[in-house]
Task: structure prediction
Amino acid sequence: MSRPLVLTVAVAIAALLAAPAVAVAQPAAFKPCPFTPAELQAALGVSFAAGTSRPPLEAGTLKMHSCRYESKNYTLQVTSQVYANPADARKATMILAGTLVPIPRDPDGAVYQEGQGDNTDPAVHYARNGVATELRVMGLYYTDRSKKTAAMVALREKLARLRRVP
Result:
């Protein structure tokens, strides 16, 4: 990670931690694990166990939820950042590492995240209803390295077609 990026991330974290504690309004019926194993299998083509979540992390006006769905092939992580000010959710996707590739005609302004250094798994980010959502596939193993790029593109396109939450 470059020194300017490390500094930017450190300043952002410090600002969040220094912010006064404010109750974060969550969308009605917010679910950290929003998908069923059946809908993930239909969209991604592999079987998944039910999602498991961890207690949310809170920092100032932000509340972060995380859910993991395990499959035999890989893990799908759904990270949801709930903001007290809904406009902040859209801003959150603008400071991500790597290159953000807009998904054409996407109603939520979703982007693919590419070239993030070591973290090069397929990922889709979008914001809606005051929540910044990340869908990331982790733990992929490519038996044929020559087909890695095509496999990543195909998987990220499937992620982008998942039902949008919240």
